[in-house]
Amino acid sequence: MRVLLLGATGMLGSAVYGVLKDKCELVLGVRNEEKIALLDQVFGRAGGGRRIVPFDGAGVYQDYVSKRGGANGYFGGFLKAVGEVDYVINAIGVTIPFALSDPAQTFFINGALPHLLAREFGEKLIHITTDCVYNGTEGFPYDEKSPKTPMDIYGLSKSLGEPAECLTIRTSIIGRELNGFTGLLEWFRRQEGQTVTGFAEHYWNGITTQQFGRICQQVMESRNGFPRRGIYHVFSTPVSKYEMLVAFQKKYRVKCTVRAEYDKKLNRTLTTCRELNEQLKTPPFHEMLNALPE
Fold this sequence. Notes:
Shape: globular
CATH architecture: 3-Layer(aba) Sandwich
Number of strands: 12
């Protein structure tokens, strides 16, 4: 099985790599090839074989800005370099901390690029989107029929990038990072000796990046047993952000003080009107957290 993994050195892509590296032949689409050494350091070499093809969503964006989008542009050249694959996992995205740095590029990479990928790969593509397409102040828990109500550039850009021609999984993720450390978990791990605030009425029921990799493995190994296209919610047991930080503290033995904050209320928990989440048998939050690497 030959799998193209886009964004293989990011928070999500690296975790997916860790799950799949010995189970299939990987083609890694990466923006910074120097980070491949970090993948090897953390996860080891790919036992199933791998090939690296440089890829940057910003390059595709510049094609379209310059009116060069198409077969002869950057994206077309990338597709030729990749060749035939059985599946594609899109782990590329502009995240919240960087969404306002270049809003036009954010809208392209989060909103347009998924549709270009779906046009090329169709049902071979597994794409991830976010609970941030909902405002978290009313209508929760949200199912696939809930109207999208994004509140910021990030949420709006992601809401535009949810193709129905492939398998699009709407969820929220936490996980370890190779470097950069902009996500919640890695931020918390660096709060030794500090007092941090955990929002006791900010509710979340997402999954770990590692679990997303396992979901991709499940779907690819039993393709006829799972949906091939459409938007599906995948979620776990709900926890507050305060409970989440306390759980992080216990697992990673961070010597800090976690203070509960009750003033800010937000609830982006997901539910579903479809069968996929039950089929996947998504584990409870604490089980997924305990499975993350130390």
